[in-house]
Design brief:
The structure holds three protein chains of three kinds.
Chain A (H helix, E strand, L loop, with lengths): L1 H27 L10 E7 L11 E4 L2 E11 L6 E8 L11 E6 L6 E6 L5 H10 L17 E3 L2 E2 L4 H14 L1
Parallel strand pairs in A: 1-7, 2-6, 5-8
Antiparallel strand pairs in A: 1-4, 2-3, 3-4, 5-6
Chain B lengths: L2 E12 L2 E12 L3 E5 L6 H8 L7 E6 L2 E2 L5 H8 L2 E4 L11 H12 L4 H14 L15 H12 L6 E5 L7 H17 L3 E6 L2 H7 L2 E6 L2 E6 L1 H5 L4 H8 L15 H8 L1
Parallel strand pairs in B: 3-8, 3-9, 6-7, 7-8
Antiparallel strand pairs in B: 1-2, 1-4, 4-5, 9-10
Helix pairs in contact in B: 3-4, 3-5, 4-5
Chain C lengths: L1 H33 L7 H38 L8 H39 L2 H7 L4 H39 L4 H11 L2 H28 L5 H32 L2
Helix pairs in contact in C: 1-5, 2-3, 2-5, 3-5, 3-6, 3-7, 3-8, 5-7, 7-8
Classes of the chains: A alpha/beta, B alpha/beta, C mainly alpha.
Bound molecules: adenosine-5'-triphosphate and magnesium ion.
């Protein structure tokens, strides 16, 4: 019967569509960091964000650990504030002393935020283990970056025009 | 006698053109009513008005006591289950075989078993002489065969009213005789009411209980076959004898040929 | 003076006609939407998915493959100048997922399935099949229009997904297997750039909107055509022209809404 054949082919069609969706989901799109997982929020101020955009990635040694959620100007002092979403997988991992810099992948590639983990004073390390500060209520005590905290040590994006300008200025003063 | 269809003071226009002016007619239950008239006079239109597909400008069309054009859409669909129409073109579904075409109304409106449906379909096709063609597709049928297959479909559900639009067109004398017989026996056996639209005056007058002749936007003659045959109205006589000249114009309304041709120069 | 009056009268008349046509088309759309296939008619819908979806599969797959391959070729020759051929993957994937997948699929669908739907419905009207359905107390909107409508709306997004996926594989074929871009970077840079909710889902949303538009136009044009050979051929042409224009116009609007303002 012709309708039998049609039904089988429609089944095949649907299966093909599902396979294509799976390909897109698993191999093409980065589903892991697509906002589906748990995250925590960090803030940072930069003098100049260059070409950084919302959804740019945050990397530690090349490993993506989060994304830029939002970029806006602080109303009071007109300095760009960048809001980051860091995967909860990296909770209590990066010390308070970590620094951020805006980097470029390749010569013309996208800009991203590089997170350089800082260090922890040995006495803090002891207090984490003994007093379990990071699990107690007051997160301010915790020597790790936690929800809502601000990173103060930031390095702005390199702006090509500034560099060239500086170079010419130096040449001129010689 | 009760009336299955009753039309009173009906007006119908198509755009600027008036098709019907104030006509009234009725169809008696259990009888065969013939409607005759020249081509293009609006016979098909009349059947579509009765079926609720076209809406008259004024006047009432009553089917089994209910006004076809005043009821709700869902009620109209319920009423249509009681009527059935054989379209002039047959209007078979071209993507289904003859068998599936005839089975279609049964499958849509009943919950019958496929084996019972098969039996009914074969009986209906046998009645129109097409049981051997049940596997064919409509494109493989001749015009006359398609009409008969459509007839089998029209009677599949045993409706109360059947409207035949030109059932005899394109039939050879033998099938025509069979069809005339079939319409008559169906009418008797199933206690149906039939409306037959046709040009074949002599055949239909043999089986009809009552006949209407239409022309010039109105009904020009009505009565039993005897009355029609013996009518002395010049309009009716012209139609029965097939004279080209007479009160009924053969031509579609136009200015005179002379004026038309002279106007070119 | 009377000429002027006639002129305005004719403008008024055409406007009214257009408004009436939009009204009729909307009524038909609602008829089809709310006549969601009954259990009995699921079979009809599946059959229509076969007609509009499965039978469009070949042209969609072949076009997707070639478009992916061409994009990889073109992209490579440009990107390699900057030593950025590693970005070939995201370039191919993003253009396919955001634009080419939904748009080209919709255009092909309008030409392949939309025109066929219009012609089929128009011919059913011309041969009085729709009338005879009505007289058999079967609502043509339910029996004929609704299954085709839903089949089209279901099929087109699936076709667009398949188109994009095959295009990406075609890009891999040319970029990696032929031109020698590193396979790992083709996939991994693509993965770090393409986002599921922003790129893939938005592409699917576009495709669903296009499907609604194309199927709606195709069915309405067939349902309302003048039942003659010229009427049907005109309606078929109009289906393809109107759908294509609307697809491109809507694509701009949707793109502006989805990606334009960050
Ligand atoms: N869709 C339509 N639009 C406008 N006018 C129409 C339409 N259909 C039919 N007409 C007109 O209505 C009139 C009646 O048509 P109808 O089909 O009812 O005639 P008929 O009596 O059945 O003729 P025939 O015996 O040739 O079948 C015709 O003169 C025709 O010009
Ligand atoms: Mg007729």
């Amino acid at each position: 019967m012709t309708s039998r054949k049609a039904e089988i082919l429609v089944g095949f069609f649907v299966a093909l569509a599902i396979a294509a969706t799976l390909l897109l989901a698993l191999k093409v799109a980065n589903q892991g960091m697509a906002g589906s997982g748990e995250t925590y929020k960090l803030n940072a101020r930069f003098d100049n964000i260059g070409g950084l955009k919302a959804r740019s990635s945050v990397k530690v040694g090349g490993v993506v650990v989060g994304r830029v959620e939002r970029i806006y100007l602080d109303g009071a002092d007109l300095i760009p504030v960048v809001e980051l979403q860091i995967s909860s997988e990296y909770k209590n991992t990066f010390p308070d002393t970590s620094s951020l810099s805006i980097l470029t992948s390749g010569l013309l590639g996208e800009q991203f935020i590089g997170l350089q983990p800082g260090f922890i004073f040995p006495e803090d390390l002891v207090s984490i283990e003994e007093d379990k500060v990071c699990e107690s209520a007051d997160l301010r005590q915790c020597p790790y970056l936690t929800e809502g905290e601000e990173i103060f040590d930031t390095k702005s994006a390199l702006v090509l025009e500034d560099l060239i300008g500086q170079f010419l200025f130096n040449q001129g003063s010689e | 006698m009760t009336k299955v269809v009753e039309i009173t003071n009906m007006h119908f226009t198509r755009g600027e053109r008036t098709i019907y002016e104030n006509i009234s007619l009725s169809v008696a239950k259990g009888g065969i009513t013939a409607i005759m008239g020249p081509s293009g006079i609006g016979k098909t239109t009349l059947l579509k008005i009765i079926g609720g597909q076209l809406v008259p400008n004024s006047g009432d069309v009553i089917f089994q006591g209910e006004n076809v054009h005043k009821v709700s859409r869902s009620r109209l669909y319920e009423m249509r289950r009681k009527m059935s129409m054989l379209f002039q073109s047959g209007a078979l579904f071209t993507n289904m075989s003859v068998f599936d075409n005839v089975a279609f109304p049964l499958r849509e409106h009943t919950k019958l078993d496929e084996s019972i449906i098969s039996t009914i379909v074969k009986l209906k096709l046998e009645a129109v002489g097409l049981r051997g063609a049940l596997g064919l597709m409509p494109s493989e049928l001749s015009g006359g065969m398609a009409r008969r297959a459509a007839l089998a479909r029209a009677i599949a559900l045993d409706p109360d009213l059947i409207m035949y639009d030109e059932p005899f067109a394109g039939q050879d004398p033998i099938s025509m005789g069979v069809l005339v017989e079939l319409i008559k026996t169906l009418n008797k056996a199933l206690d149906l009411t039939s409306i037959v639209v046709t040009h074949d005056v002599s055949e239909v007058l043999e089986i009809a209980d009552y006949a209407y002749i239409m022309a010039n936007k109105t009904i020009i003659g009505a009565g039993t076959p005897e009355e029609i045959k013996n009518s002395d109205s010049p309009l009716v006589r012209q139609f029965l004898n097939g004279d080209a000249d007479g009160p009924v114009p053969f031509h579609y309304n136009a200015e005179s040929l002379q004026d038309d041709l002279l106007a070119v120069n | 003076m009377t000429q002027l009056a006639n002129y305005f009268a004719s403008i008024g008349r055409t406007t009214i006609e257009k408004v009436v046509a939009i009204g009729q088309a909307s009524l038909m759309l609602f008829g089809a939407l709310f006549a969601f296939p009954k259990v009995k008619n699921i079979g009809l819908t599946i059959h229509q998915i076969y007609v509009v979806g499965v039978q469009s599969l070949l042209i969609i797959m072949v076009s997707g493959l070639f478009i992916g391959m061409v994009m990889a070729l073109q992209g490579y020759t440009i990107l390699v100048n900057y030593g950025a051929e590693g970005s070939l993957g995201p370039m191919v994937a993003l253009s396919l997922l955001r634009e080419l997948g939904p748009v080209v699929t919709a255009l092909l669908f309008a030409g392949r399935a939309g025109s066929a739907l219009t012609a089929e419905i128009g011919l059913m009207k011309a041969t009085e099949q729709l009338s005879s359905l009505e007289m058999m107390a079967v609502d043509p909107l339910r029996r004929v229009i609704a299954p085709r409508f839903w089949a089209g709306v279901i099929s087109m997004p699936m076709l667009a997904i398949i188109f994009s996926a095959i295009g990406i594989l075609g890009g891999h074929l040319v970029g990696v297997d032929w031109l020698g871009v590193d396979s790992g970077s083709y996939w991994s840079i693509m993965q770090s750039t393409v986002e599921w909710d922003k790129d893939v889902v938005n592409g699917i949303i576009k495709s669903i909107v296009f499907a609604l538009v194309v199927v709606w136009i195709a069915l309405y044009k067939g349902y309302s055509c003048v039942p003659t050979s010229e009427g049907i051929s005109q309606a078929t042409t109009q289906t393809v022209v109107y759908s294509s224009l609307l697809i491109l116009g809507l694509d701009f609007i949707l793109t502006a809404l989805m990606f334009g303002i960050s």
